[in-house]
User: Which sequence fits this backbone?
C-alpha cells in the first residue's frame, strides 16, 4: 500500500527588531521535528521580517531572513517571536503601520501565536480584547495596565483561545509548540517529537513556580506532601478543609503556605490538576465524558465541559477528536 504524504502545515515566524534569538529558533526546531509514522515532516516552517530586511537581535548580531511579510499570507499559523523586554513595546494603537497592516490583513482562518512580549503586539492590534492571555510574569503587571480589556494570567505557561494563543517567555515556547503539535496531529506525534527534542511532553506547574516568592519562615511545613496526596485522590470531592486537615494546618495557614510555594490558590491548582487528568483520559482511553468527569473529580460532565472549554477552548468531544487522532 503506497504512502500518501500529508499536506504540511505552514508555520511562518515573524521576526521584529530586538528579537531574542533563542525564542526565534524554537518553532523551527520543535515543529521541524514533528513527523508522521513514515518519517515525513508535518510542518513547513519559514521566517520573515517586515520588508524582508535584516533583523537586529537583542544581542550583538543581526539575522538575515529569506522572506518579507507577504509570507504571512501563506501561513496556517503565524508566530510572532519575542522582542527584548527592555525594548519599546506597543501601546494600544501604537503599532508601526507596516506591522499593523501585516497583523490586520491576516485571514480569519490563520492561527496566531505570540511568544512572550509579542502578546503586546496582539493586544495593541485588538486581537486579545475580552480574552484571557499571558506573557512573561515579569512584565504582566505592565501588560495589565496597558490593556485592561485583556484578562492577563501570569501563572500559566500559555493560553489557548482557539485561533489566538499567547505564552510566557523563553523555554515556554517549547511547551507551546508541543501543544500546537498535539492540536494538529495528536498526542502520539507530540510525544514522539518531545522525545526527539529531549524535553518533557507536558510540563507541570506553569510559570507561577518561577515568580520570586519570599521563603516561608517555617520551611518544615511544606504543602508538597498534601499536593502528592491529593493527586492520588482527584476522583474524590476534595475541599480546602480536607487539604488543610491533611497538612495539619488551619485553612488560613494552609492557603498562605500553598500560595507561597505554588503561586496560586489551592482551589485553582486542584482544578488545573483535574483538567490535566481529564485531558490524559480523553487522549488515552475510550471512557465516556461522564466517566472521565467522575474519574477527574468533577461534579458531572457539564462541569468538565465548562472548565475544559474555559482553559483549553475546546469541548471534551472536540479535544478527544483533536488529540487522540492517529496518523497513517
Assistant:
Amino acid at each position: 500500500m503506497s504512502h500518501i504524504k500529508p499536506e504540511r502545515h505552514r508555520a511562518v515566524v515573524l521576526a521584529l527588531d530586538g528579537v531574542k534569538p533563542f525564542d526565534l529558533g524554537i518553532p523551527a526546531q520543535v515543529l521541524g521535528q514533528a513527523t508522521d509514522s513514515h518519517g515525513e515532516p508535518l510542518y513547513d516552517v519559514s521566517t520573515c521580517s517586515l520588508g524582508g530586511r535584516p533583523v537586529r537581535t537583542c544581542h550583538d548580531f543581526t539575522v538575515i531572513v529569506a522572506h518579507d511579510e507577504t509570507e504571512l499570507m501563506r501561513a496556517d499559523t503565524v508566530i510572532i517571536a519575542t522582542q527584548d523586554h527592555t525594548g519599546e513595546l506597543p501601546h494600544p494603537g501604537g503599532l508601526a503601520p507596516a506591522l499593523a497592516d501585516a497583523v490586520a490583513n491576516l485571514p480569519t482562518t490563520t492561527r496566531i501565536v505570540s511568544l512572550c512580549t509579542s502578546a503586546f503586539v496582539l493586544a495593541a492590534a485588538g486581537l486579545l480584547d475580552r480574552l484571557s492571555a499571558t506573557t512573561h510574569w515579569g512584565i504582566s503587571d505592565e501588560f495589565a495596565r496597558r490593556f485592561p480589556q485583556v484578562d492577563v494570567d501570569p501563572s500559566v505557561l500559555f493560553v489557548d483561545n482557539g485561533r489566538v494563543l499567547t505564552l510566557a517567555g523563553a523555554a515556554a515556547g517549547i511547551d507551546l509548540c508541543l501543544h500546537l503539535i498535539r492540536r494538529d496531529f495528536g498526542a502520539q506525534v507530540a510525544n514522539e517529537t518531545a522525545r526527539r527534542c529531549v524535553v518533557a511532553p507536558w510540563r507541570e506547574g506553569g510559570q507561577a513556580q518561577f515568580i520570586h516568592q519570599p521563603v516561608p519562615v517555617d520551611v518544615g511545613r511544606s504543602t508538597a506532601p498534601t499536593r502528592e496526596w491529593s493527586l492520588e485522590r482527584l476522583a474524590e470531592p476534595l475541599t480546602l478543609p480536607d487539604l488543610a486537615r491533611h497538612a495539619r494546618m488551619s485553612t488560613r495557614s494552609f492557603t498562605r503556605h500553598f500560595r507561597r510555594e505554588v503561586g496560586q490558590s489551592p482551589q485553582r491548582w486542584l482544578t488545573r490538576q483535574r483538567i490535566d487528568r481529564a485531558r490524559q483520559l480523553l487522549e488515552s482511553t475510550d471512557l465516556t465524558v461522564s466517566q472521565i468527569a467522575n474519574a477527574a473529580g468533577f461534579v458531572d460532565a457539564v462541569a468538565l465541559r465548562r472548565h475544559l472549554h474555559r482553559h483549553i477552548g475546546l469541548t471534551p468531544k472536540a479535544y478527544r477528536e483533536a488529540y487522540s487522532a492517529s496518523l497513517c
About this structure: The radius of gyration is 21 Å.
